[in-house]
Amino acid sequence: MQKESFIETLRRKMPRGSLRGQLVRYLVTGGLAFAVDYGLFVLCYDKFGWHYLLANLVGLVAGLVINYIMSIVWVFSECKRVLENKKTAEFGVFAIVGIAGVGLNQLLMYLMVGNLDWNAKVSKIVAAALVLMWNFGARKLMLFRERKNA
Fold first, then answer.
1. pTM of the entire predicted model
2. CA–CA gap between residue 128 and residue 121 (Å, rounded)
3. Alpha helix locations (H) across the chain?
4. How much of the chain, in percent, has pLDDT values that exceed 70?
5. Average pLDDT of the segment spanning 67-82
6. 46 compared with 124, residue with greater pLDDT
7. In the chain, at which end, N or C, are there fewer CB atoms within 10 A of the end residue's CB?
C-alpha cells in the first residue's frame, strides 16, 4: 500500500468546500501574503529607512493583491461568488475589507509601537495575526457565503 502524500492528506481532511478547509487555505494564503508584506516592510523600514507606517502600508498593499488572487483561485473556489459577474465590484468589496484591515493594522501598529513602545517587527506580527481573522470572516460573509451547486 502506497503512503499518502501530505498534499493528498490535506485534500482529504480539508476539502475546499468546508469552512475548515477554507480557513486552512486562507491561513496558507495569508502566510504567503504576509511573507511578501513582511519582506517589503523590513526592506523599506530597515534598508530604506522609511517611517514604519509608510513601510507597513507598502507591504500591506502587495499582500492584498496576492491575497485576492489566491482567494479567488484557491481558497474560495468552491463557493458562489456573490459578485462573480461584477469583477470590479467584487475586487472593490474585497479591497474595502482589506482597507478596513489596513486601517485596523495601522491602528494596532500605532498603539503597539507608538504608545506601548513595542518592537516594530514583533508588533507587525501581532497585528497581522489579528487582522487575518478579521479579513477571513468579513470576506467569507460578504463575498463567499454559499457553496456552488454540485
1. 0.69
2. 11
3. 6-13, 19-42, 52-70, 87-109, 120-143
4. 93
5. 86
6. 46
7. N
